[in-house]
Amino acid sequence: MKVRILPPAMQDVLVAHEFYNRQGDGLGAYFLDCIFSEIDSLALYAGIHSKIFGYHRHLAKRFPYGIYYLLEEKRPLVIRVLDCRRDPNWIKKQLEH
Questions:
Q1: For the purposes of burial, counting CB atoms within 10 Å of the CB of 30, is it exposed (0-12), middle (13-18) or buried (19 or more)?
Q2: Contact yes or no for 57/45 (Cβ under 8 A)
Q3: DSSP conformational letter for 20
Q4: What does the alpha-carbon distance between residue 40 and residue 8 come to, in Å, rounded to a whole number?
Q5: Along the 97 residues of the chain, how does pLDDT read in single tens digits?
């Protein structure tokens, strides 16, 4: 099963990548490896994660990010990849767009 990633989710990943690039050498690349590995795992484990604000949320293991997704005909559709350190109200607003 293939995982689809919407443009806003990809933009979230790119913004986070830039942030981690500024934090240290190689950290941005490490972030991408970790996040895309987590997203790829949805091909096997989509649907087992609890729902938050109406979306399944898979919490990344190495970085404080939540991968918010829906199942469309049993196929994972990544809506957003958001920093869990943010205000929950901000997260909810991001998911409403």
A1: middle
A2: no
A3: H
A4: 17
A5: 799 999 999 999 999 999 999 999 999 999 999 999 999 999 999 999 999 999 999 999 999 999 999 999 889 999 999 999 999 999 999 999 7
Rounded Cα distance between 82 and 80, Å, is 6
Return d(Cα 97, Cα 83) in angstroms, integer.
16
What does the block give as tokens for 94? 């991001």
Amino acid code (one letter) for 66: G
pTM: 0.95
Place of tokens 């990849």: 81
Structural domains in the chain plus CATH codes = 4-96 (3.30.2310.20)
Please, what's the b/e burial string for 68-96 (b: 16 or more CB within 10 A of its CB; e: otherwise)?
bbbeeeeebbbbbbbbeeeeeeebeebbe
